[in-house]
Design brief:
2 helices; elongated; membrane; transmembrane helix; Fatty acid desaturase; transmembrane
Length: 87
C-alpha cells in the first residue's frame, strides 16, 4: 500500500504537501458537531412521517428531502466522499 499524493488529497490551505487522512481531517469537537447536525436531519426525517396521511403527501416529501440531506452533506459538503482510496 503506497501513499501517493494526488490532487484530491492535498491540503490547499498550506504550502506544504500534506496528505489529508482521517486522523488529521478535523478535531473531535468538529466531528461531534457534524454528527449531531446530520443525525438531527435524519431524526427530523423520521419525525416528519408521523404527520403522513393518505390525503397529505408533503410529510413524505419533507422526509425524503431531510433523509437525502442527512446523507448528501457528509459525502459532499463536509468532504469525506473522496477518502475511500486513501488507505
Amino acid at each position: 500500500m503506497s501513499s501517493q499524493i494526488n490532487a484530491s488529497s492535498r491540503d490547499t490551505a498550506s504550502n506544504k504537501e500534506t496528505v489529508r487522512t482521517p486522523q488529521n481531517e478535523n478535531n473531535l469537537a468538529t466531528s461531534v458537531v457534524l454528527f449531531v447536525i446530520c443525525f438531527a436531519l435524519f431524526l427530523g426525517a423520521i419525525y416528519s412521517l408521523s404527520f403522513l396521511t393518505l390525503g397529505n403527501p408533503w410529510p413524505m416529501a419533507v422526509c425524503l428531502g431531510l433523509f437525502a440531506l442527512a446523507f448528501w452533506l457528509p459525502q459532499t459538503i463536509f468532504g469525506r466522499s473522496d477518502s475511500a482510496g486513501e488507505h
